[in-house]
Amino acid sequence: MNTAINSRVFESFPVLETDRLVLREFTLLDAQDLFEIRSNKSVMKYMDTDAHKSLLDAQKMIEGILYSFQNKEGINWAVIDKKTNQMIGYVGFWRLMKEHVRAEIGYALHPSFWSLGYMSEALKIVLEFGFSTFNLHSIEGNVNKNNKQSIELLEKFSFVKEAHFRENYFYDGGFIDSIIYSLLETDREEVLKN
């Protein structure tokens, strides 16, 4: 049982690789690709946060991601297509609950790459890293109840629904439900099957 995260992970950024993808640290050169993702209406439909309105928004997000890693508060990867060297999405543990050895996962993919297995490929290696290298005990996913694609992805990797909070989040003039999913380290064998 993991009882403390492996803080040595923050000594140098962990680059991960799959058959089709490289997951690497963000740089400010990724701002245009990130802007195209975070300003896309289809991507942002269930994000429950404001879409990027300018390249500056993307640059600020990247600066926040880099700051988070430097301060040992999170790890977020730019997802790069090996064939084109293009950033097509991102995935990461954007919020750590160190005292509980738990992290919240977040991810997004440009719609041009939806339904091609890219996010499953990225998520599998990140989840395995989370348990085997980062020493997480549990990984949480917080999802808008209407985001069927994200829910299906989490369930594919054996995440279990923990809670359904009714109208617990206020955004854009209304209250929104949140659904919390989790995956425990004891379930990591299920991750490897995907």
How would you describe what is shown here?
The structure is a single chain. The chain is α+β, with helices and mostly antiparallel strands and 194 residues long. It has one domain (7-193): Gcn5-related N-acetyltransferase (GNAT) (Aminopeptidase, 3-Layer(aba) Sandwich), CATH 3.40.630. Helices cover 30% and strands 33% of the residues. An 8-stranded mixed β-sheet has the order 1-2-3-4-5-6-8-7, with helices on both faces. Strand 4 and strand 5 (102-109) form a beta hairpin. It is globular and about 45 Å long. The protein starts with 15 loop residues before the first strand and ends with a helix. The model has no long low-confidence stretch (mean pLDDT 95).
Give a quick precis of the structure.
By secondary structure, this protein is of the alpha+beta class.
Largest sheet: 8 strands, mixed
The succession of helices and strands, N to C, reads EEHHHEEEHEHEEH
Name of the CATH superfamily: Gcn5-related N-acetyltransferase (GNAT)
Q: Distance N terminus to C terminus? A: 23 Å
What is the CATH top level name?
Alpha Beta
Biggest sheet, strands in spatial order?
1-2-3-4-5-6-8-7
* Category from helices, strands and their pairing: alpha+beta
Tally of individual helices? 6
Determine the mean pLDDT: 95
CATH architecture: 3-Layer(aba) Sandwich
Oligomer: single chain
